[in-house]
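Please, why this fold?
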Amino acid sequence: MKIEQLLVQHFYNNREVTLQGMGTFTLSPDFVAPKENDKEAEIPDNAISFEYNARAVADDTLINYIVQQTRKMKSLAAADLDSYLVLGKQFLNIGKPFKIEGMGLLIKNQQGELEFIKGHSFHTKMENTPAPVAAKEKSVNPDISFASEAKKTEGSNKKGLLIAGMIIGVLLIGATAWYFLGRKNDTSIDNKTLAAAADTSQNSTPKEDTVALKTTPEAPAADGFTFKVVFLQTADSAAAVSRMNVLTARKHKIIMYTKDSLYNLAEPFTLPLSDTAHIKDSLNRYYYSGKAFIQLK
């Protein structure tokens, strides 16, 4: 079942829910849930209120409800919720609404604060009708699931879990080895660059009238970097967010921006412009498979 559906279920059951970094939704005490045979009942005016709070923290009652419904560990349930909200914030930051089906829309106003617009319909039977996981949701939050659509014997389930566990273990070992190898190569490249720079500075004695020119570093641009290495351009916002989260977890500083209706991912640098080719070639060799290119401004 989608995180969005669990969030809405919990809201109508608990009559209140807080989304971290966004604010708190409250259901009017006068609101009565429609009967089960009402397929789409209207949400009354003023039934749902929203209080914006950029410092709102995670709602433990919501996370516990997700754990209860999905039988996942609490840390995984919290991570799923966080991924869902991060995607929503990305939409808000580029001027698009964040839709919560069964409640309404969140939009960002000109002051940078969030406002809530009530939805029109209340979908019933959510509690007893789990929705299938859609392919789009898998692309945003690709959780590995061992759920089976057909009934299997207990023995076959155990065997499937064992095989899946072994595959995941092998993948994790391979990913860990690849990560540390890449970090080692990056460190080697950086050390060689630093050593060459240090050797040049020790063996060259600038003339008195050129000292100020030689020792003054190149000034970064107003936005904090002299150039950026663009490695992804896509119209799929979910794919862009997913890729950014992966590289951010690997300690890369990534920025995302839109240009010509495409989502662009880039890694900014404050190095001299003479280093652009060296940095691009290094990143293409170890991370971006020759797809990266330099963009100055």
Remarks:
- The CA atoms of residues 228 and 289 lie 17 Å apart.
